[in-house]
Amino acid sequence: MTAVLDQVKNVAYTGVGVNLVVTDAIIGREVPAPKAVTEHAATARAKGTEALTDLRGRTEPLAAKVVERLPEQVAGAVETGRKAAWGFLGIDAPKAAAPKATKKAAKKA
User: Fold this and answer.
1) What dihedral do alpha carbons 58, 64, 65, 70 form, nearest 10°?
2) Chain segment 4-59, per-residue pLDDT in tens
3) Do 52 and 90 touch, CB atoms closer than 8 A?
4) Model-level pTM greater than 0.85?
5) CA 31/CA 23 separation, integer angstroms
6) d(CA 39, CA 45)
7) Is residue 109 predicted with pLDDT exceeding 90?
8) Which of 11, 96, 98 is nearest to 50 (CA)?
9) DSSP letters of 23-45?
């Protein structure tokens, strides 16, 4: 039962945190929390930022594949808009992963 409660607590913190991160970005500053929940708000913001960073890391490769298939002008607009949206939220782009060596490349070496 403790594991379930921990999962529920993490989901709640993450959900509230994503909302706080987006609200902070829209307003342009960190929205102050009441003194009674300041610690909880800080934890929620951290978990929200972590979740959004993870989401960007998972969606970047897919978005890049979609952009490659678009006409050049459309691809440029999509790329610019996507980067602007993530930049507005303050979520950094994930570091590029090192290319994986294929079995054929390993055998030739």
Assistant:
1) 140
2) 999 999 999 999 999 999 999 999 999 999 999 999 999 999 999 999 999 999 99
3) no
4) no
5) 8
6) 10
7) no
8) 11
9) HHHHHTSPPPPPGGGHHHHHHHH
For the chain, the distance separating the N- and C-terminal CA atoms, rounded to the nearest angstrom, is 52
pLDDT of residue 98: 53
Structure tokens at 26: 């829209």
CA 88 to CA 82: how far, in whole Å?
Answer: 10
Give the position of tokens 């994986």.
100
Q: CA 53 to CA 41: how far, in whole Å?
A: 18
Mean pLDDT of 92-104: 63
Length of the chain as a residue count: 109
Distance CA 108, CA 23 (A): 53
| Structural tokens at position 103 | 């079995």
